[in-house]
Amino acid sequence: MLKFDIEKKNGLMRVGVIHTPHGDIHTPAFVGAATRATVKALTMKEMRELGSQAILANTYHLILRPGVDLIKEAGGLAKFSSWHGPTFTDSGGFQIFSLPDVKITEEGVKFKSHIDGATFELTPEKSMQAQWAIGADIHMAFDHLANSENYDDMEIAMHRTHAWLDRCVEEHKRLANGCLSTGPAGSCPPPLHSKLSGGPPPEPSPVDVPQYLYAVVQGGTFLDLRAQSAKYCASKDVDGFGIGGVFTAEGMAEMLKTVNRILPENKPRHLLGMGQEPIDLFDGAENGCDTFDCVGPTRMARNGSLYTYDGRINIKNAKYTHDFRPLMEDCDCECCKNYTRAYLHHLFKTDEITAKVLASIHNEHFVVSVVDKIRESILSDTFSDYKSTFLSRYYHK
RNA sequence: GCUGGAAUCGUCUAGUGGCAAUGACAAGAGACUGUAAAUCUCUCGCCUUCGGGCUUCGUAGGUUCGAGUCCUACUUCCAGCA
């Protein structure tokens, strides 16, 4: 079982430490989105320096390229990417939602590769096998995001997610017992634990170290479905929970309250895909989420939309041509400590690669440090003040 | 000096008698939430009550119902010949 220590609680929110085989995550924490085993435009050194504690990669993308066996051969995601810290993988379930021409059945999902058009299938079992080969510390169960706001569609997707969760749990156990073959259940070699029980522990290979599974709560914007899904997930033998299928901050806090009151307190909760807007992070932490990931900060960085305490600015705008102030006062990221808005503006207007690098450093640092400060504010009982001060300034326009 | 060719929105360009006139770039702005995103969208002669109105293709004339497009002259540039 994944070890999770809670240091302090206040209502639903909490401060804790997730102890992964690759290191601790002090929560609440923002996890970098490293879809293809890289945070776009950033090196892992830059990620470490800007304060990131963990990264999240995507199973679908890594299956396509470079292939999960190659990552296994390389020694697992952390070693392959030179991250060397805690890692998550998303199951590939999100691609059901985001890719065109996806065929969904009870068995699983058929995609067409967006690279070469080849048909390829993902099932709960295959997702688990792939995630074990990738070797992240924490895996997400293969879930179904409904591509619809409709209640009936949401309900179907939720039930399918639950059915798939059972299969994920089973396959995860099988794989945890040392069977990394893709053969049918029951064809496993002796379980890993028996090897560990006698004599000196074997040299751990990346796939021999423990890996952990989060169930994913679905249910869309419907609180009754969310409650139902949370109960179902809570009843399973999993290490933590992902909360998925959230797309706007609107109604999110209420939904998280419903879900996190039901989920067991002693297991970590990851809010999937939210964190582009600072309010997501405050609402998420306040309502009991421990980790976050979001592609927004780095994507917006590449597109020139940069965080400041006074809201996002588009650094490409003409008004920054002669603005020789740092991007953000009192920011200790490499970008703000060394460069001006005018310089960033110039780099973006001339389409220099460095524009995206510096912007990504800043935006990623911004969200990481906002969540770090949320952590400190919970510890010092100043969360409410921090939240209201931060948000009123950020969204004041 | 002669002979040919060319001149279109900031730049390059499409246009060979019928719509303020093509495309690219530049410029201006917007979007982005478990990344098919180094992407996408909008504006880009002036005015507009969004119906439309007005002024534009080097300059000045002309032919024509109608001219960026055909004719004449001029200006400038390019090439070749002297």
Task: Give the secondary structure arrangement, pairings included.
Elements: E1 3-10, E2 13-20, E3 23-27, E4 29-33, H1 44-49, E5 55-58, H2 59-64, H3 68-74, H4 77-80, E6 87-90, H5 94-98, E7 103-104, E8 109-112, E9 119-122, H6 124-134, E10 138-140, H7 151-176, H8 192-197, E11 212-217, H9 223-234, E12 240-243, H10 252-262, E13 269-271, H11 278-286, E14 291-294, H12 296-302, E15 305-306, E16 313-314, H13 334-338, H14 341-349, H15 353-379, H16 383-394
Parallel strand pairs: 4-5, 4-14, 5-6, 6-10, 10-11, 11-12, 12-13, 13-14
Antiparallel strand pairs: 1-2, 2-3, 7-8, 8-9, 15-16
Helix pairs in contact: 3-6, 6-7, 7-9, 9-10, 11-15, 11-16, 12-15, 14-15, 15-16
The chain binds one RNA strand of 82 nucleotides through residues 33, 35-36, 40-41, 56, 58, 61, 88, 90-91, 93-95, 97-100, 113-115, 140, 143, 145, 216, 242, 244-249, 270-277, 280, 293-300, 302-303, 305, 314, 316-318, 351, 353, 355-356.
